[in-house]
Design a protein that fits this description.
Pfam families: COX1 (PF00115), NorB_cytochrome_c-like (PF22085). Among the domains are: 191 residues, no CATH class; 156 residues, no CATH class. It is 67% helix and 3% strand. It has 27 helices and 8 strands. α23 packs antiparallel against α27.
């Protein structure tokens, strides 16, 4: 008991310190974010942009899909370019072309000799890098040569986002529909926002030689090379990783004992569980999981195909109905929604199972929440369609349309609706768990951790409500990653660890005391890096250098527990083999083992590949990011959601014979398909882009010139085998769930005992 109390005290201290530091960093981000000028003028006094132009331009960008169509500061889609990096390089070239026309009477600086080009490259940095923002007047002043280049690049973008025939091939390469922004004034204001994003990435901070985005993106022409602190903190991150692995290894050697119970039950304890009306009502949540999963896969195939046919699908003008930015929006959102729905359903199922208590009107609450989830999905997606198709208008877009923030794209009204739904879920789970919390049983610590993670899931989504329509981009990114990293990757995982521990203790396979110690320790290890590890997403989003130091150190610690996932996999395997009746839970256990594998590969190897500062400087927004994203999001959280769902289905349909062939097909097809998707397409494509970024600059790795090469097309087509196999597995899983309710095969009843 004393050891348990020490672990609880350690967890409380860890969370207090971690969130204090995280909030302090938020204050520094707010204080040191790139300024938004009131006016941008040239040295002759000509007005180029106003603050209103920049802010309305951001609204326009959000309404067309925002980060789902290209990216800003490296966060977003991968087919179109990073608009800030693209603008910056085009502007630098336009300035030099202007000099070449005036001084050498040639059309392009590329026609000059090597020595002159080198001199121009040095000279253009003296134009772009000095900070000419005057805080007292809120004015940025640029010289006339730069102003002319800005008008030239702006003209290119205004044509690109319109329907000018000359740029139709480029729109197709970027998977943009013709007339992406219908209004000419809005197109001009969009260029103001893109220019500001580019200006922030090259302009040096006051009293510094590093830009607001830590010299990101890499582009030697404009002087954007990795600063020395990236090297320093990358080395330290590796040292922290090695030290953390060593300490955790020492802890396992000293304290890790055999947690399996000495006396195992002869029958399945959960088979005797009384299924309450509210528990039975959770079945419909798993139907929704299956439906959203299939739609997500379909949208993923459409999104991937846009990379080879930018506006069509086998001759059909798909972009006129479902543009790329919309299919990608729905694909990424559905990934979070179906996984979250599986976990929400699990919470509603497991709470009465833990306490044995069915609160009054609990079933009604489960039904109501299910209806709310359907309304949110349909309403939010409809609003996003109207926004991207430019049928809504900017005045309503923020609340009912498309916010443009990857993974947090819902309009604000729908965000509030979802938050209220999560609070309802929290109250339903909490009121069912409350009797178990009051009992003071031996498993109270696990139940308490489960309850606290439920509270965190319910309330931490509120971080997505912390920004407004005109909040600074750096602050939006700060809060957005609270949702994506802490809510999705953090507290859901703590919830899952507690649920799995409870299931194994309830099955009588684990000793409650040792399981409690293991769960609390695992939570401490995970959150020690997980909370401040959020900052590795913010290295290059206009944040101070303290973000790089803290993010590098603690994101390395995130990987530490993953070095020992082999223990977790073996532990799950032992649970599955502990007693003959555990064969009933073979496939949920297999999915838990898959979680361990993808934790190591997707979250661990591919995560640490991109997370150190120097690595991410070149890799942010390249296809190495979705390599990590796909293998971690589905491989870990998706597989975990499926495993938890299958545990619930075993309880909901205890007398139904499971089709082992369907589950075997689903398990192996999804794992093999995900592996092929990563190894045949995402990883090699990302490595080719990395080489291009190192040799030519980040802008080139994201350019149409690079991305439209035949080799790139071939790699994209190589997704077909993996996607097909994966889809077969998904269909097998959905068909399995369908047959549990439709024409199921029942287990034969045991014969009644004979009278002696």
């Amino acid at each position: 008991m004393q050891s348990t109390r020490r672990l609880w005290a350690g967890l409380a201290a860890l969370l207090l310190v971690s969130f204090s530091v995280l909030l302090w960093v938020g204050g520094e981000v707010h204080r040191q974010a790139p300024p938004l000028p009131e006016r941008v003028v040239d040295t002759e006094g000509n007005l180029l942009y106003t603050r209103q132009d920049i802010e309305v331009g951001r609204q326009v960008w959000q309404s067309i899909g925002g980060q789902q169509l290209g990216s800003i500061w490296g966060h977003g889609g991968y087919v179109a370019p990073d608009w800030g990096a693209d603008w910056l390089h085009r502007e630098a070239e336009a300035i030099q072309d202007g000099w070449a026309r005036r001084e050498a009477n040639v059309e392009s600086y590329k026609q000059l000799d090597e020595a002159t080009r080198a001199a121009y490259a040095k000279r253009v940095q003296t134009v772009l890098r000095p900070n000419r923002y005057e805080a007292s007047t809120g004015t940025i002043t640029v010289d006339v040569d730069r102003a002319a280049a800005m008008r030239e690049v702006a003209h290119h973008y205004e044509q690109l986002f319109g329907d000018t025939p000359e740029l139709a091939p480029l729109r197709e390469a970027y998977a943009m529909r013709n007339g992406t922004v219908a209004d000419a004034a809005h197109r001009h204001q969009l260029t103001a926002f893109y220019w500001w994003a580019a200006w922030s990435s090259v302009t040096e901070r006051p009293d510094s030689k590093i830009s607001y985005t830590a010299n990101w993106p890499a582009d030697e022409m404009v002087g954007n090379t990795p600063p020395s602190n990236l090297f320093l903190w990358t080395v330290f991150s590796v040292l922290f990783l090695l030290a953390g692995i060593g300490l955790l290894g020492w802890h396992y050697a000293v304290n890790h004992g055999d947690e399996i119970a000495t006396v195992l039950p002869k029958r399945d304890p959960l088979a005797e569980l009384r299924i309450t009306p509210s528990m039975r009502a959770t079945g419909k949540y798993f139907w929704v999981v299956c439906a959203l999963f299939l739609v997500q896969i379909l949208l993923g195939a459409m999104t991937a195909h846009y990379q080879v046919e930018g506006q069509e699908a086998y001759g059909f003008a798909l972009a006129d109905v479902l543009p790329y930015s919309l299919t990608r929006t729905w694909h990424t959102q559905l990934a979070v929604l179906w996984i979250a729905t599986a976990w929400l359903g699990m919470g509603l199922y497991i709470a009465p199972a833990i306490s044995g208590h069915e609160p009054k009107f609990q079933r009604l609450g489960v039904h109501a929440l299910w209806v709310c989830l359907l309304i949110i999905v349909v309403g939010a997606f409809a609003g996003q369609w109207f926004a991207v198709m430019q049928k809504m208008g900017l005045e309503h877009n923020f609340w009912f349309g498309h916010q443009g923030w990857e993974y947090v794209d819902l309009g604000r009204f729908w965000q509030w609706f979802l938050f209220i739904g999560l609070v309802l879920w929290l109250s339903l789970v909490g009121r069912a768990l409350w009797p178990a919390l009051r009992k003071g049983s031996e498993s109270r610590s696990i139940v308490t951790l489960l309850f606290l993670s439920t509270v965190a899931i319910g309330l931490f989504y509120a971080a997505g409500l912390m920004w407004g329509e005109h909040t600074h981009l750096s602050m939006v990114e700060y809060w957005r990653w609270w949702v994506v990293h802490l809510w999705v990757e953090g507290f859901f995982e703590v919830f899952a660890v507690a649920v799995i521990a409870f299931l194994f203790t309830r099955l009588g396979l684990l000793q409650i005391r040792s399981a409690t110690m293991a769960v609390l320790f695992a939570t401490i290890v995970f959150l020690s890096g997980g909370v401040l590890g959020t900052l590795h997403h913010l290295y290059f989003t206009g944040t101070p250098t303290a973000v790089i130091a803290l993010g590098a150190s603690f994101s390395a610690l995130e990987v530490v527990p993953l070095a020992y996932v082999g223990f977790e996999a073996y532990h799950s395997y032992k649970m599955g083999k502990a007693t003959p009746w555990m064969a009933r839970y073979r496939w949920p256990i297999m999915f838990f083992i898959a979680v361990s594998f993808w934790n190591l590969v997707g979250a661990g190897l591919f995560g640490f590949l991109i997370n150190p500062p120097l690595s991410l400087y070149y890799m942010q927004g390249l296809n190495l990011t979705p390599t990590h994203g796909h293998t971690a999001l589905f491989g870990v959280y998706g597989m975990l959601g499926i495993g938890l769902m299958l545990f619930c289905l075993r309880g909901l349909k205890p007398d139904v014979v499971w089709n082992e062939k369907l589950l075997k097909t689903a398990f192996w097809a999804m794992n093999i398909g995900l592996s092929l998707m990563a190894l045949l397409t995402l990883l090699p494509l990302g490595l080719l882009q990395l080489r291009a970024a190192l040799e030519h600059g980040y802008w080139y790795a994201r350019s149409a010139e690079f991305m439209q090469q035949p080799l790139i097309d071939l790699l994209v087509w190589m997704r077909v085998p993996g996607d097909t196999i994966f889809s077969i597995g998904a269909v097998a899983l959905v068909w399995f769930v369908f047959r549990l309710w439709v024409a199921p095969r029942r287990e034969a009843a045991l014969p009644a005992p004979q009278a002696s």
